[in-house]
Design a protein that fits this description.
about 325 residues; alpha/beta; VC0802-like; Rossmann fold; 2 domains; 7-stranded mixed sheet; 9 helices; about 30% strand
Protein backbone atom coordinates (compact mmCIF):
# COMPACT_ATOMS: atom_id res chain seq x y z
CA UNK A 1 0.00 0.00 0.00
CA UNK A 2 1.71 3.19 -1.20
CA UNK A 3 1.56 6.29 0.96
CA UNK A 4 1.89 8.40 -2.22
CA UNK A 5 5.04 10.33 -1.38
CA UNK A 6 6.16 10.77 -4.97
CA UNK A 7 7.85 13.94 -6.15
CA UNK A 8 5.78 16.11 -8.51
CA UNK A 9 7.44 18.43 -11.07
CA UNK A 10 7.13 22.08 -10.07
CA UNK A 11 8.68 25.45 -10.89
CA UNK A 12 7.98 26.82 -7.43
CA UNK A 13 10.91 27.32 -5.06
CA UNK A 14 10.78 25.65 -1.68
CA UNK A 15 12.76 25.72 1.55
CA UNK A 16 13.39 22.26 3.00
CA UNK A 17 14.25 22.06 6.71
CA UNK A 18 16.85 19.30 7.19
CA UNK A 19 18.20 17.68 10.35
CA UNK A 20 20.04 14.49 11.25
CA UNK A 21 22.07 12.77 13.96
CA UNK A 22 25.83 13.26 13.62
CA UNK A 23 26.24 9.53 12.88
CA UNK A 24 24.03 9.97 9.79
CA UNK A 25 25.36 13.34 8.63
CA UNK A 26 27.24 11.87 5.67
CA UNK A 27 24.21 9.82 4.61
CA UNK A 28 21.98 12.88 4.88
CA UNK A 29 24.33 14.84 2.63
CA UNK A 30 24.47 12.03 0.07
CA UNK A 31 20.68 11.74 0.00
CA UNK A 32 20.26 15.51 -0.44
CA UNK A 33 22.80 15.50 -3.29
CA UNK A 34 20.80 12.76 -4.98
CA UNK A 35 17.39 14.39 -4.45
CA UNK A 36 18.35 18.04 -5.00
CA UNK A 37 21.85 18.10 -6.48
CA UNK A 38 23.32 19.97 -3.50
CA UNK A 39 24.35 19.48 0.10
CA UNK A 40 22.23 20.89 2.93
CA UNK A 41 23.53 24.25 4.13
CA UNK A 42 22.92 25.40 7.70
CA UNK A 43 20.13 22.89 8.11
CA UNK A 44 18.25 23.59 4.89
CA UNK A 45 18.08 23.09 1.15
CA UNK A 46 16.43 25.58 -1.20
CA UNK A 47 15.32 24.08 -4.48
CA UNK A 48 12.77 24.37 -7.27
CA UNK A 49 12.38 20.58 -7.18
CA UNK A 50 9.14 19.63 -5.47
CA UNK A 51 9.81 16.66 -3.18
CA UNK A 52 7.22 15.38 -0.73
CA UNK A 53 9.00 15.95 2.61
CA UNK A 54 7.84 12.56 3.91
CA UNK A 55 10.13 10.85 1.39
CA UNK A 56 13.26 11.61 3.37
CA UNK A 57 14.04 10.64 6.96
CA UNK A 58 16.07 13.84 7.21
CA UNK A 59 13.59 16.45 5.93
CA UNK A 60 11.47 17.95 8.72
CA UNK A 61 9.21 19.86 6.39
CA UNK A 62 8.83 21.90 3.22
CA UNK A 63 8.11 25.62 3.03
CA UNK A 64 6.62 26.58 -0.35
CA UNK A 65 8.01 30.10 -0.64
CA UNK A 66 5.26 32.66 -1.25
CA UNK A 67 6.83 35.89 0.06
CA UNK A 68 10.35 37.17 0.72
CA UNK A 69 11.56 40.30 2.51
CA UNK A 70 14.55 41.80 4.28
CA UNK A 71 12.87 41.48 7.68
CA UNK A 72 9.76 40.19 9.42
CA UNK A 73 8.07 43.58 9.05
CA UNK A 74 8.43 43.26 5.28
CA UNK A 75 6.65 39.89 5.34
CA UNK A 76 3.95 41.26 7.65
CA UNK A 77 3.31 44.16 5.26
CA UNK A 78 2.61 41.74 2.37
CA UNK A 79 0.88 38.83 4.07
CA UNK A 80 -2.57 40.37 4.50
CA UNK A 81 -3.12 40.60 0.76
CA UNK A 82 -1.20 37.43 -0.14
CA UNK A 83 -3.14 35.00 2.08
CA UNK A 84 -6.84 34.34 1.61
CA UNK A 85 -8.13 31.87 4.21
CA UNK A 86 -11.77 31.72 3.07
CA UNK A 87 -12.98 30.88 6.55
CA UNK A 88 -10.26 28.37 7.40
CA UNK A 89 -8.11 28.57 10.54
CA UNK A 90 -4.34 29.10 10.45
CA UNK A 91 -1.10 29.01 12.39
CA UNK A 92 2.29 30.63 11.75
CA UNK A 93 5.43 28.75 12.87
CA UNK A 94 9.10 29.66 12.74
CA UNK A 95 10.62 26.70 10.87
CA UNK A 96 14.32 27.38 10.43
CA UNK A 97 17.25 29.76 10.11
CA UNK A 98 20.88 29.71 9.05
CA UNK A 99 21.72 31.96 12.03
CA UNK A 100 20.86 31.49 15.74
CA UNK A 101 17.42 32.90 16.62
CA UNK A 102 16.37 32.61 20.24
CA UNK A 103 12.97 31.30 21.29
CA UNK A 104 11.54 34.70 22.23
CA UNK A 105 12.50 36.21 18.88
CA UNK A 106 10.94 33.25 17.02
CA UNK A 107 7.64 33.76 18.87
CA UNK A 108 7.83 37.50 18.21
CA UNK A 109 8.23 36.91 14.45
CA UNK A 110 5.29 34.49 14.43
CA UNK A 111 3.03 36.97 16.22
CA UNK A 112 4.08 39.93 14.08
CA UNK A 113 3.15 38.11 10.89
CA UNK A 114 0.16 36.24 12.29
CA UNK A 115 -1.54 39.44 13.43
CA UNK A 116 -1.64 40.65 9.82
CA UNK A 117 -3.42 37.57 8.47
CA UNK A 118 -7.18 38.03 8.29
CA UNK A 119 -8.76 34.99 9.93
CA UNK A 120 -8.90 32.86 13.04
CA UNK A 121 -5.68 31.49 14.51
CA UNK A 122 -5.69 27.88 15.76
CA UNK A 123 -2.59 26.64 17.58
CA UNK A 124 -3.32 22.90 17.80
CA UNK A 125 -5.03 21.76 14.60
CA UNK A 126 -5.05 24.60 12.07
CA UNK A 127 -6.55 24.12 8.64
CA UNK A 128 -3.51 25.80 7.12
CA UNK A 129 0.01 25.91 8.52
CA UNK A 130 2.35 28.70 7.43
CA UNK A 131 6.08 28.87 8.04
CA UNK A 132 8.73 31.56 8.37
CA UNK A 133 12.45 30.97 7.78
CA UNK A 134 15.58 33.09 7.53
CA UNK A 135 18.28 32.30 4.95
CA UNK A 136 21.18 34.56 3.92
CA UNK A 137 19.56 37.52 5.68
CA UNK A 138 16.26 37.12 3.81
CA UNK A 139 12.95 36.22 5.44
CA UNK A 140 10.91 33.55 3.65
CA UNK A 141 7.18 32.92 4.16
CA UNK A 142 4.76 30.36 2.76
CA UNK A 143 2.66 27.29 3.36
CA UNK A 144 4.51 24.69 5.43
CA UNK A 145 4.09 20.94 5.03
CA UNK A 146 5.39 18.86 7.92
CA UNK A 147 7.12 15.58 7.23
CA UNK A 148 5.43 12.41 8.44
CA UNK A 149 7.86 9.80 9.81
CA UNK A 150 6.39 6.94 7.79
CA UNK A 151 9.53 4.82 8.18
CA UNK A 152 8.99 4.63 11.94
CA UNK A 153 5.84 2.58 11.33
CA UNK A 154 7.95 0.11 9.38
CA UNK A 155 10.07 -0.66 12.46
CA UNK A 156 7.18 -2.80 13.67
CA UNK A 157 7.90 -5.70 11.35
CA UNK A 158 6.53 -9.07 12.45
CA UNK A 159 9.71 -10.67 11.03
CA UNK A 160 12.74 -8.52 12.02
CA UNK A 161 16.40 -9.41 11.53
CA UNK A 162 19.27 -8.20 13.68
CA UNK A 163 21.66 -7.16 10.90
CA UNK A 164 19.05 -5.66 8.56
CA UNK A 165 19.36 -1.99 7.65
CA UNK A 166 17.44 0.42 9.85
CA UNK A 167 14.33 1.79 8.17
CA UNK A 168 15.89 5.29 8.16
CA UNK A 169 19.01 4.10 6.35
CA UNK A 170 16.99 1.92 3.98
CA UNK A 171 14.74 4.83 3.06
CA UNK A 172 17.69 7.13 2.37
CA UNK A 173 19.40 4.44 0.27
CA UNK A 174 16.25 4.04 -1.85
CA UNK A 175 16.17 7.81 -2.44
CA UNK A 176 19.83 7.76 -3.43
CA UNK A 177 19.15 4.97 -5.93
CA UNK A 178 15.88 6.40 -7.29
CA UNK A 179 15.64 10.16 -6.72
CA UNK A 180 13.17 10.79 -9.55
CA UNK A 181 9.97 8.75 -9.46
CA UNK A 182 8.47 8.24 -12.90
CA UNK A 183 5.97 5.81 -14.39
CA UNK A 184 8.82 4.06 -16.23
CA UNK A 185 11.08 3.64 -13.18
CA UNK A 186 12.20 0.06 -12.39
CA UNK A 187 14.27 -0.89 -9.34
CA UNK A 188 15.59 -4.27 -8.19
CA UNK A 189 16.86 -5.52 -4.82
CA UNK A 190 18.55 -8.83 -5.72
CA UNK A 191 19.50 -9.65 -2.09
CA UNK A 192 16.28 -8.49 -0.48
CA UNK A 193 16.43 -10.43 2.79
CA UNK A 194 13.39 -9.69 4.97
CA UNK A 195 12.31 -6.83 2.69
CA UNK A 196 13.43 -3.69 4.54
CA UNK A 197 14.43 -1.89 1.33
CA UNK A 198 11.38 -3.19 -0.54
CA UNK A 199 9.01 -1.81 2.11
CA UNK A 200 10.56 1.66 2.03
CA UNK A 201 10.52 1.77 -1.77
CA UNK A 202 6.93 0.59 -2.09
CA UNK A 203 5.78 3.05 0.56
CA UNK A 204 7.11 5.83 -1.67
CA UNK A 205 5.37 4.52 -4.78
CA UNK A 206 8.63 3.23 -6.28
CA UNK A 207 8.20 0.09 -8.43
CA UNK A 208 10.63 -2.54 -7.10
CA UNK A 209 11.13 -6.30 -7.17
CA UNK A 210 13.16 -8.43 -4.78
CA UNK A 211 15.06 -11.68 -5.06
CA UNK A 212 16.88 -13.80 -2.51
CA UNK A 213 18.42 -17.26 -2.40
CA UNK A 214 17.33 -17.91 1.19
CA UNK A 215 13.77 -19.29 1.39
CA UNK A 216 13.47 -18.38 5.08
CA UNK A 217 14.35 -14.75 4.28
CA UNK A 218 11.77 -14.71 1.50
CA UNK A 219 9.13 -16.12 3.83
CA UNK A 220 9.91 -13.31 6.29
CA UNK A 221 9.80 -10.73 3.50
CA UNK A 222 6.36 -11.92 2.40
CA UNK A 223 5.05 -11.76 5.97
CA UNK A 224 6.45 -8.24 6.40
CA UNK A 225 5.07 -6.99 3.08
CA UNK A 226 1.63 -8.41 3.82
CA UNK A 227 1.69 -6.84 7.31
CA UNK A 228 1.94 -3.38 5.72
CA UNK A 229 -0.63 -4.15 3.02
CA UNK A 230 2.01 -4.31 0.27
CA UNK A 231 2.10 -6.71 -2.70
CA UNK A 232 4.25 -9.83 -2.85
CA UNK A 233 7.12 -8.66 -5.08
CA UNK A 234 9.72 -11.26 -4.05
CA UNK A 235 10.97 -14.40 -5.78
CA UNK A 236 13.59 -17.05 -5.00
CA UNK A 237 16.70 -16.74 -7.18
CA UNK A 238 20.47 -16.47 -7.06
CA UNK A 239 21.26 -12.99 -8.35
CA UNK A 240 24.27 -14.29 -10.26
CA UNK A 241 21.94 -16.56 -12.23
CA UNK A 242 19.17 -14.07 -12.96
CA UNK A 243 18.63 -13.78 -16.71
CA UNK A 244 17.49 -10.20 -16.91
CA UNK A 245 18.58 -7.19 -18.88
CA UNK A 246 20.18 -7.60 -22.29
CA UNK A 247 20.58 -11.38 -21.98
CA UNK A 248 16.80 -11.88 -21.95
CA UNK A 249 15.84 -9.05 -24.28
CA UNK A 250 14.50 -7.10 -21.30
CA UNK A 251 15.90 -3.61 -20.69
CA UNK A 252 18.08 -3.34 -17.59
CA UNK A 253 16.62 -1.93 -14.40
CA UNK A 254 17.17 1.76 -13.69
CA UNK A 255 18.76 0.95 -10.34
CA UNK A 256 19.85 -2.00 -8.22
CA UNK A 257 20.21 -1.77 -4.45
CA UNK A 258 22.52 -4.36 -2.91
CA UNK A 259 23.03 -4.74 0.83
CA UNK A 260 25.91 -7.21 0.63
CA UNK A 261 25.21 -10.23 2.88
CA UNK A 262 27.21 -10.56 6.08
CA UNK A 263 26.93 -11.93 9.58
CA UNK A 264 29.21 -12.95 12.43
CA UNK A 265 29.45 -16.57 11.30
CA UNK A 266 30.25 -16.16 7.62
CA UNK A 267 31.95 -13.72 5.29
CA UNK A 268 31.75 -13.27 1.54
CA UNK A 269 34.90 -14.22 -0.32
CA UNK A 270 36.28 -11.67 -2.77
CA UNK A 271 35.29 -14.01 -5.62
CA UNK A 272 31.68 -14.23 -4.40
CA UNK A 273 31.48 -10.48 -3.92
CA UNK A 274 32.90 -9.78 -7.37
CA UNK A 275 30.39 -12.16 -8.95
CA UNK A 276 27.56 -10.29 -7.20
CA UNK A 277 28.85 -6.90 -8.33
CA UNK A 278 29.27 -8.10 -11.91
CA UNK A 279 25.71 -9.40 -11.83
CA UNK A 280 24.48 -6.08 -10.46
CA UNK A 281 26.17 -4.28 -13.35
CA UNK A 282 24.37 -6.60 -15.78
CA UNK A 283 21.01 -6.09 -14.07
CA UNK A 284 20.92 -2.30 -13.74
CA UNK A 285 22.21 0.99 -15.11
CA UNK A 286 22.94 2.38 -11.65
CA UNK A 287 23.96 0.40 -8.57
CA UNK A 288 23.88 1.42 -4.91
CA UNK A 289 25.92 -0.90 -2.68
CA UNK A 290 25.82 -1.18 1.11
CA UNK A 291 28.93 -2.85 2.52
CA UNK A 292 30.68 -3.28 5.85
CA UNK A 293 34.04 -3.54 4.08
CA UNK A 294 36.13 -1.46 1.69
CA UNK A 295 35.47 -3.02 -1.72
CA UNK A 296 36.88 -0.46 -4.17
CA UNK A 297 39.04 -3.01 -5.98
CA UNK A 298 36.07 -5.31 -6.55
CA UNK A 299 33.96 -2.38 -7.75
CA UNK A 300 36.60 -1.46 -10.30
CA UNK A 301 37.00 -5.10 -11.36
CA UNK A 302 33.23 -5.26 -11.95
CA UNK A 303 33.65 -2.28 -14.32
CA UNK A 304 31.68 0.08 -12.12
CA UNK A 305 32.62 3.67 -11.31
CA UNK A 306 31.88 5.27 -7.92
CA UNK A 307 29.83 8.47 -8.31
CA UNK A 308 29.20 9.21 -4.62
CA UNK A 309 29.69 7.56 -1.26
CA UNK A 310 29.33 7.97 2.47
CA UNK A 311 29.84 6.15 5.76
CA UNK A 312 26.97 5.48 8.18
CA UNK A 313 27.99 4.85 11.79
CA UNK A 314 26.16 3.27 14.67
CA UNK A 315 28.51 3.29 17.62
CA UNK A 316 31.65 1.50 16.41
CA UNK A 317 29.81 -0.28 13.59
CA UNK A 318 30.19 1.26 10.13
CA UNK A 319 28.50 0.71 6.80
CA UNK A 320 29.57 2.21 3.49
CA UNK A 321 26.91 3.37 1.04
CA UNK A 322 28.40 3.52 -2.46
CA UNK A 323 26.62 4.81 -5.57
CA UNK A 324 27.99 3.49 -8.87
CA UNK A 325 27.36 3.57 -12.58
CA UNK A 326 28.79 1.62 -15.51
CA UNK A 327 32.42 2.41 -16.31
Amino acid sequence: MSENVQNIPSKETSFYAVSCHEDEQDLCGMEMRSLFGSDPRHGCVISDKNINPSRSPFIRGKLAILLTADDSAGIAAQVGEAVALEGRTFKVSFVGSDIPVDFERQRSIEKEIGWRIVGKAEMRQPDRLFGVAIVDGRYLFGEFEKSEALWLKHNEKPQPYSTALSTRVARAVVNIAAPDITAELRVIDPCCGIGTVLIEALSMGIPIVGYDLNPLALKGARVNLAHFGMPDVVRKADMTQLQLGAASGEPPYDAAIIDLPYNLCSKLSSEERLAMLQSARRLAVNVVIVSTETIDEDIAAARLVVTDRCVVRKGKFERQVIACRHA
